[in-house]
Design a protein that fits this description.
Layout lengths: L10 E4 L3 H17 L2 E12 L2 E12 L4 E8 L5 E5 L7 E4 L8 E3 L19 H13 L5 E11 L2 E10 L4 E5 L8 H8 L3 H6 L16 E5 L5 E7 L5 E8 L2 E13 L18
Parallel strand pairs: 1-8
Antiparallel strand pairs: 2-3, 2-14, 3-4, 4-5, 5-6, 6-7, 8-9, 9-12, 10-11, 12-13, 13-14
Helix pairs in contact: 1-2
């Protein structure tokens, strides 16, 4: 997919020119779209009910058809999740590596899968991230500033540090219509925002699975975040760090290590019969 250069109307400060920063971000997004698989070690820090929760895992993603295998390192060591598009009734298969001692199937957009997570497992990988960044930068209704914070040394790599600021971040009234989306995940995907942030800011919504009735008015953010900080590895242009703030402060932060683009697949990969899995 061809990604156009970011509009020159964006303000770029510090030592990077508009063209240079545009090229960095566009290469990051282009590479994400071209890759077929991704294997990463990720540290997830997300604000859940006002407190920052940390999770560490190894995640393997195949984009087409979509499949995700995740094995958690902490806090629930050994927990495994396998999602394969079109299989298991489009549910995720969970090996809890503990009570209740049996595999369970869960709705990837449901409350249990979202209990301590901002994102559905189907949005794993850099393609989803690149779509959020692309929409944020190309939305003409947003008053965006980009700050290039230089080429930095970080965890043994050279990274371009870039800050995206929505100068008019706010929540808008959104009315549910008969022909529109009625669940948080679908609303979030349509407008490139986060479903957890919507739930957090609407006391009239009980949970992620609620079917919102026609005429219901909810609050949704006008962009994914008020402030987004990216670290993009020089040369490879893969994301190594993402930090998102909203009107309350730090909303989420992700650290990506051992990034392997188009990593080879083991025998039986993305099936519950794979000998490397514990299902």
């Amino acid at each position: 997919m061809k990604i156009l250069l970011i509009s020159l109307l964006l303000i770029v400060s510090s030592i990077g020119s508009t063209q240079e920063v545009s090229e960095i971000l566009n290469k990051m997004m282009e590479n994400a779209q071209k890759s077929q698989r991704l294997k990463i070690d990720v540290e997830i820090n997300e604000r859940i009910e006002g407190k920052l929760k940390t999770q560490r895992s190894t995640t393997f993603v195949r984009y087409e058809p979509m499949a995700v295998y995740m094995k958690q390192k902490s806090p629930k060591k050994g927990l495994e999740v396998l999602f394969i598009e079109g299989e298991n009734n489009n549910n995720a298969l969970i090996n809890p590596n503990g009570f209740p001692w049996v595999n369970v199937s869960l709705n990837p957009h449901g409350n249990m899968m979202h209990e301590e997570s901002h994102h559905a497992i189907v949005n794993s990988g850099f393609r989803y991230l690149s779509s959020l960044i692309k929409n944020t930068l190309e939305n003409p209704e947003l008053n965006m500033t980009i700050n290039y914070l230089g080429l930095n040394d970080w965890k043994g790599s050279k990274v371009h540090k870039i800050e995206l600021i929505n100068n008019d971040f706010r929540f808008l009234d959104y009315q549910i219509t008969e022909e529109g989306e009625h669940q948080l995940f679908n609303i979030a995907m349509k407008y490139y925002i986060n479903e957890y942030m919507i739930l957090e800011n609407n006391d009239n919504i009980d949970d992620f699975e609620e079917e919102l009735s026609e005429g219901t008015i909810i609050k949704i953010p006008n962009s994914y975040g008020k402030r987004i900080v990216l670290m993009v590895e020089d040369g490879t242009f893969v994301p190594r760090y993402v930090e998102v703030h909203d009107n309350q402060g730090l909303f989420e932060k992700y650290v990506y290590d051992n990034v392997r683009i188009d990593a080879p697949m083991r025998p039986g990969e993305f099936t519950k019969e794979c000998k490397e899995y514990g299902f």
